[in-house]
Design brief:
This protein has helices spanning 26-45, 58-62, 65-69, 100-107, 130-138, 147-154, 156-167, 185-205, 214-227, 256-259, 271-277, 285-317, and strands spanning 2-9, 50-55, 78-81, 113-118, 122-124, 142-145, 176-183, 233-234, 241-243, 264-266. It is an alpha/beta fold and 318 residues long. It is globular and about 50 Å long.
């Protein structure tokens, strides 16, 4: 079965769409996300895997400089415009993230294909793992359980409350990240049906939830599918993907050395770093890690200098 990778860039100027990213203009925001998509596409291509960027505005994405520069190259970004029908309230936080449901709806239409949906700030850093190949061959769906990050940060009672509210069942409080979902068209069809069933509960109660975005609804839908008897493998425990934060977090985080062995690395707080790397040439998976570490060291040194200057200034004022 053919394995294809997909990501989403839904563009809506004036809405609160950026996630873990601070930008001055909409154009800057779009540029960073496009550059992230280019890095994900290029690192996957090194493993012989095709990536397609799903969007609501192909013309705008095509117009960006780095996309134009690579248009006729072998690693040109594949862009596909698809329809979007999810009703999302204007002004809601993480507005565009809600349109992931339409991306999943598109994946449900693809026959003879095992689809992997990734966030754009994900990078391929290792070879396609054998465990993932076996899951693909068996047609087994996969999600990414990040309960060990969410529960320590917000409390298990909060997670249980929110998922019980959305799912209308007494939830176990297990949370799935939105950065990785994989399976056949049949799986995505079942998932989208559950999401559609629960979406109204989410919108009605959105002001009371700890999290706004696709993860809350998807987590409730996945729990519902599991309770119906569907086996869904966990990408995190299998080392298929890892989420690493380079900033201070509210949960116990494994060292970066642990995540280096994952097939995919999610860097939600490093979109700008990934964007900068998009303009550099690298032809091996290890090259990305080298560039990433170099930039992180430079930022660390800059922060230390800033701290030293602040301390010196403080001492002068005493």
């Amino acid at each position: 079965m053919d394995t294809r990778f997909f990501g989403l860039l839904h563009l809506s100027d004036g809405e609160k769409s950026a996630m873990n990213l601070s930008t001055k203009t909409f154009s800057e925001q779009v540029s960073i996300y496009i550059n992230n998509a280019i890095v994900l596409s290029k690192t996957l291509a090194l493993q012989g895997k095709k990536f397609t960027l799903l969007t609501n505005n192909k013309k705008l994405v095509d117009s960006y400089p780095l996309v134009q520069q690579r248009k006729n190259s072998p690693d040109a970004l594949d862009i596909l415009e698809i329809p979007f029908m999810t009703s999302v309230p204007s002004g809601i936080k993480f507005y565009s993230a809600h349109f992931k449901f339409d991306a999943l709806r598109y994946l449900a239409s693809l026959s003879n294909c095992y689809s992997v949906f990734c966030d754009l700030d994900v990078v391929c850093i290792n070879k396609f793992p054998q465990c993932l190949q076996h899951l693909v061959e068996a047609g087994i769906p996969i999600s990414y359980d990040i309960s060990d990050q969410v529960i320590p940060a917000y409390g298990h009672d909060v997670i249980i409350r929110d998922l019980t509210t959305i799912g209308k069942i007494k939830s176990e409080g297990r949370w799935s990240g939105g950065e990785f979902l994989a399976g056949t068209a049949a799986f995505f069809h079942s998932l989208v049906m559950e999401i559609d069933r629960l979406y109204g509960n989410y919108i009605t109660n959105v002001e009371t939830l700890h999290h706004v975005g696709d993860e809350a609804v998807t987590s409730a839908a996945i729990e519902s599918l599991r309770r119906s008897g569907l086996y869904i493998a966990d990408a995190g425990t299998l080392g298929i993907i890892g989420r690493y934060w380079s900033i201070r977090v509210l949960h116990p985080q494994k060292s970066f050395a642990y995540y280096k062995s994952c097939f995919l690395l999610h860097l939600p707080s490093d979109k700008k770093l990934i964007s900068d790397i998009a303009e550099q040439d690298f032809d091996q998976l290890t090259s990305f890690l080298g560039l990433y570490r170099k930039k992180m060291r430079a930022i660390s040194m800059m922060n230390l200098r800033r701290l030293a200057l602040a301390v010196a200034q403080s001492l002068k004022l005493r």
